[in-house]
Specification:
transmembrane helix; eight-stranded antiparallel sheet; PepSY domain-containing protein; transmembrane; 374 residues; alpha+beta; membrane; PepSY-ass_TM; 8 strands
Amino acid sequence: MGLPLLKLLDLLHRWMGGLLGLILALLGLSGAILVHKDAWIGLPHAHDPLRPDVASVAQATEALMALPGGPQGIIYATPRFGLHQTRFGEGAGLYADQAGNVVTRWQSQWERPELWLFDFHHHLFTGDFGEWISGIAGLAAVFFVVSGAILWWRTRKTFRFRLWPKRMSRPAIVMQHRDLGIVLAPLLLLSALTGAMLLFRPVAMVVVAPFGPVAETAKALEPPKYKSSGPLAQNTDWRAMLVAAHQRFPEAEFRILSLPRKPGDPIMLRMRQPDEWLPNGRTTLWFDAATGAVLGARDARALPQGAKVFNMAYPLHAGKVGGLAWRIVMTLSGLGMAVLGSFAVWSFWFRRPKQKKRVPAPAITPDAVASGSV
């Protein structure tokens, strides 16, 4: 790569880092905290062992769906988090134990740190607009890793591994940024790319294209358009639905029950089979909201290879696969991004080298010429 191109790459790397570094730092830090969310939610029964049998899940479902306030759905307990989460409108919700007893309620996401922290990490508190900003920052992070590796190659002989700058001067910060970045480059690339895949479907399709036809993958990820014969019945038989789902997929865990959002929508039940990485699974059943009859089902094991690869993005990004070892790896990635992003902003905006004042040359006068001093 020629010197002019390297200078341009360096200029883009520095300016984009100065503009987006703080966002990436905050996304990295919040992500590192969220990776361990299930461990630090200190509520009663949060660490109860999972009771996946149909009878226990049906008992809890009937109790939670009978609560006043119009429940919108249930996120069921997992082996790592022993509480069911029930969602209501306007950000309200509750946690309940696996017998259906309410443990705690909230009227707004601001009452639960894991909820507002996720909203920040995913939406930057600004809904769809925040998703776009986060996605752009993720793509920028991919650029930083690639361009940083190219720029590092010129100075590879001066490599020194440092978690923290030797001193808080701009040269020391730049050296630490460069050398720590190359060490963490594979993890940062994985975090940034999987995050962008989750926010921008075209990016995901480009990444999974080598694993199968893009059109086939995109079609497999779209939910089928089933219609209910009427509104949600007042006496819905939740137990019968769960039994039917268990008979269809006997090895799968119950993961998410979603009620219709508008007339004609079906009830949706997501399940997770043993070989699925995605924590909430992609094995799905749809039920008629009026009658409870099964309208259709999708087996995640039968999805095209491209769709299966896409479904690996979130568990890799959020540390939902690989146990504690992978959670630690992704924690290091998030903290590394926080350090690199914050120091990039600090060095760019507050530690820029001061321009030396140029002293003008003395004027040449006739007397100086006559005296022979010039």
